[in-house]
Amino acid sequence: MAGVRQFDEDMTLDLAMNVFWQKGLSATSMQDLAEATGVLRGSLYNAYQGKERLFLKVFDRYRQRMTASMAQALAEPSIRVALENFFEFIISSMIEGTPTRGCLTTKTAVDGISEVDTIRVALQGMLDDIEALLHARFAAEAQNDTLNLPADQASRLVSTFTRGVVVMERIYQDPERLRSTAASMVQVLVKG
């Protein structure tokens, strides 16, 4: 029937996400997506009007899942444990898969395609979400005097730090190095 998708959209988006995450947006072709999802290229194009719009749909799904998991990690009563959980989630997510998949946001940001306004806005939204989650958690700590920095500075520092962790993972592929560096960041941020 015309206009009705003849494929499972949830499964297709998850499979497409895996391709974008492993290969990056620039290196992924519509043929790659068709092969991975089992959906014909023409059907993917008709449903999403091309690779960029499919990526944006996938990235929105990724953003919702990642920020929900980050919020859950930050929900711990102890700020130290919350940050440890947050960094463990970030690191575990990056090192998943063989080869490791890294970070979809940073991978997309550095492959040149982020100059496209719609892509840049989507990436910026993700980073803004991360910073807002961190800011809300750090602002809640302000009355406890447990942080060495004001909430706005701490949230921007940690958000920026996570992008550096992603790059270090790509270069060293050493999870223990990442965990040690994250532990140092917790020491810098949390008093005592």
**Which geometry do the CA atoms define?**
elongated
Under the CATH scheme, the architecture of the domain at 59-189 is Orthogonal Bundle
Under CATH, the topology of the domain at 59-189 can be stated as Tetracycline Repressor, domain 2
Low-confidence stretches: none
Number of helices: 9
Helix-residue proportion? over 70%
Query: Any idea what the CATH superfamily of the domain at 59-189 is called?
Result: Tetracycline Repressor, domain 2
Alpha-beta content class: mainly alpha
**Mean pLDDT value:** 93
Largest sheet, in brief, is:
none
The oligomeric state is single chain
Question: What does it look like?
Answer:
- The protein is mostly helical.
- The longest helix has 25 residues.
